[in-house]
Recover the amino acids of this structure.
């Protein structure tokens, strides 16, 4: 196919948008390990999970055999308001880098939540509404998930209680106001409003909070309130399922133009974006139909894939959640305050952890000054101001494109640009002022985090 | 055509994007009045204007006969990075309002500058580069224009000096950081760096600045520096020309689905968005081919159309610019500090002023609490968090749709959604906290502003 026939942005027609989510677990020989009851160490049953999550979402969480799951029409309609997202050919970046590589990015930032998180938020809100619930609770770190959930709940007229990691609550008052504009209540975590919050505050006065801690509070708030359930924006199988819409659109767009990627790159915190983006490609790989290099990129300051351990761990600091088998830094691990932006979770999606352990994907960690350099370079030629999280993927995409420049290889690189950095200007200011630095945890830091792993088997 | 065949978002193909701008002045019987030399009161010559503006832009400013002007390929390529912008059918808003009206909005916020301003910024930067200039200077109020220009200059490797109205500089540090990320220098205005700035500071110590004042500083900075010219984001004929890309895309998208609007609505500060959106429709109206109701919406706190005077006035506070004939509140008018967001300029585009004076469009002023109510309502059902400026148009679109609900008329309403409110969360916070109020200038306030009009004829 002639090069220039590929437009800057490939948009699908509404009729080409996915009507089903793809469940990559159905194609995995080694299934992700089940969630365990922390008391009995037996796999969590649907009934047990139903106290925390909506029934339909529990079913999706446990289903590792159904390959395609219908997207309800109500969710399809909502998707039509901000999807399909464009698959962009980064012509200007390629030119700037003078690389023979062909670079594409799937841009998920064109919605008010500013990221891909809305894809799962709207699904989770829909099922909560369908079950007749009053509302949902959740945690948020950088604020993308909380914003997305607020939007989704306002659309379905559900109450929404967000526990926001204290350091973000203070650094990102504007994120908080977006959530409030959508009618959500926002509480800085740890807070005095929950038992687990009070306990953590007593043990660690002055803590700036963590995702693991906010999760504990949100779960408690949900299980202690009539008509509420807890929802989570990443890590879970159900979330990766909803996010498969990213990968399916990407694949349809590429197929339309006869493009086969060589390398697929995504940033990874809990794994929702990466898992969604790679799903259909990983499916082909699992079924032996095609091969792709898949690279997960994580912050050097929170390196669960590259320096963590594959083991059962608590999903939250308060240890009220089930145990999950995952690459983890230990539920007590808190990334250095030096680290700007998201991708702070101590563990990684069980699905992605299994795929990584099976050698089906690579992982790379990058330092934040290098990440912001890439962000600035990208912004100046491609226009979009990227989120720090997404910029991890940009960093590695640029690195790979520069390798192509050396070797002369015309590789096709696809990366996920998960969101915009409009609410991350404190971090950009630090970078602009030359005040940003890197912190890589020492082996001792990591050993301390891992010392708290639960004994399983 | 069957109703539901219209998608939520109409995107044009790259091949359907405009290759020419449309110059509405070519179809006006009564041309907009020329800019005058404030000393001689004679029309400004191209040579005189060339000291301030780039040569090609001067030609565009003065050309009121050429109907279509080619968009250079370099600009078309940049447009392809973030355009076409979607024309969205507001199905969810219609449903919420229970109106038989059909509502569409042209959404210009899907780019990092967050607004339509980029359409003209990239054109002005291109012509500056082509002329071999080192850089450009400008002013910015709410920050959308400054951000857009920073992006455009970074793309063409031009230096960019932005004078930012002091109150915005202080209230919107994040806007400033976006501009710095794109390599621009940002100075709060009035500043000590220019003669006119020092004079204004001496006369009004403690002033929080105004657009008119920042313009004076930017013009001085351009004319006093070798290789620099001044660029402006609104008001001028050339800007309306570039912004015609909005209206042309809108019209192509509507034509594709056989839709004829009854009412076209846009917010109006200096007039760039409104002028661009309505251009091709106004052209049909001027040529007697079709009729449309066209409504300009302005803040009740800065009501140049609805309460101003049609007269020659200074474009800037320091009176260093040419005189323009326009609806104006007087170059000394400064909107109440109570007013949040943009649309603060004391005057209105000469082109729009002439069209309004000729009875070809209507104007309406709205109060800001009503504007934020509309913004919140829109955000909750349509997902997008709108800029306060854009929300003026939303307010009137909702009002018109509610009239249709009363009368049962199925009118088709198109409005311009110029941008996102990500950098306006201070104003949203005020609204969320119930602390927002309205201020409408008294007749005495307005008389004071108009007392300073220059004597012409």
């Amino acid at each position: 196919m002639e090069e220039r026939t590929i437009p800057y942005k490939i948009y699908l027609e509404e009729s080409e948008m996915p009507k089903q989510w793809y469940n990559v677990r159905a194609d995995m020989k080694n299934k992700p390990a089940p969630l365990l009851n922390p008391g009995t160490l037996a796999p969590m049953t649907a009934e047990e999970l139903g106290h925390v999550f909506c029934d339909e979402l529990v079913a999706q969480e446990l289903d590792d055999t159904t390959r395609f799951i219908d997207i309800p029409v109500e969710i399809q309609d909502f998707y039509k308001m901000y999807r399909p997202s464009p698959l962009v050919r980064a012509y200007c970046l390629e030119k700037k880098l003078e690389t023979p590589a062909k670079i594409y990015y799937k841009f998920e930032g064109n919605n008010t939540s500013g990221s891909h998180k809305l894809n799962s938020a709207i699904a989770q809100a829909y099922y909560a509404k369908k079950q007749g619930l009053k509302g949902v609770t959740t945690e948020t770190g950088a604020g993308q998930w909380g914003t997305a959930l607020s939007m989704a709940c306002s659309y379905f007229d559900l109450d929404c209680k967000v526990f926001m990691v204290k350091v973000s609550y203070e650094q990102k008052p504007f994120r908080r106001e977006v959530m409030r504009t959508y009618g959500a209540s926002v509480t800085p975590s740890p807070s005095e409003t929950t038992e687990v919050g009070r306990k953590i505050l007593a043990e660690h006065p002055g803590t700036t909070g963590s995702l693991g801690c906010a999760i504990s509070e949100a779960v408690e708030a949900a299980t202690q309130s009539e008509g509420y359930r807890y929802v989570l924006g990443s890590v879970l199988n159900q979330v990766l399922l909803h996010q498969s819409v990213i990968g399916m659109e990407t694949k349809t767009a590429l197929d339309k133009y006869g493009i086969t990627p060589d390398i697929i790159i995504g940033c990874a915190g809990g794994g929702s974006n990466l898992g969604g983006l790679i799903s259909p490609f990983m499916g082909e790989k699992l079924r032996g139909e095609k091969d792709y290099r898949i690279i997960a990129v994580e912050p050097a300051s929170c390196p669960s894939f590259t320096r963590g351990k594959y083991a059962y761990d608590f999903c939250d600091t308060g240890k009220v959640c089930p145990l999950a088998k995952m690459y983890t830094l230990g539920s007590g691990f808190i990334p250095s305050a030096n680290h700007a932006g998201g991708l702070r979770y101590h563990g990684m999606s069980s699905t992605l952890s299994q795929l990584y352990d099976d050698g089906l994907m690579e992982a790379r960690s990058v330092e934040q000054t290098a990440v912001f350099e890439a962000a600035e370079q990208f912004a100046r030629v491609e226009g979009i101001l990227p989120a720090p999280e997404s910029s991890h993927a940009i960093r590695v995409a640029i690195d790979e494109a520069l390798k192509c420049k050396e070797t002369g290889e015309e590789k096709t690189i696809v990366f996920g640009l998960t969101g915009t950095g409009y609410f991350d200007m404190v971090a950009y200011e630090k970078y602009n002022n030359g005040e940003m630095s890197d912190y890589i945890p020492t082996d001792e830091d990591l050993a301390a985090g891992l010392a708290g792993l639960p004994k399983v088997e």
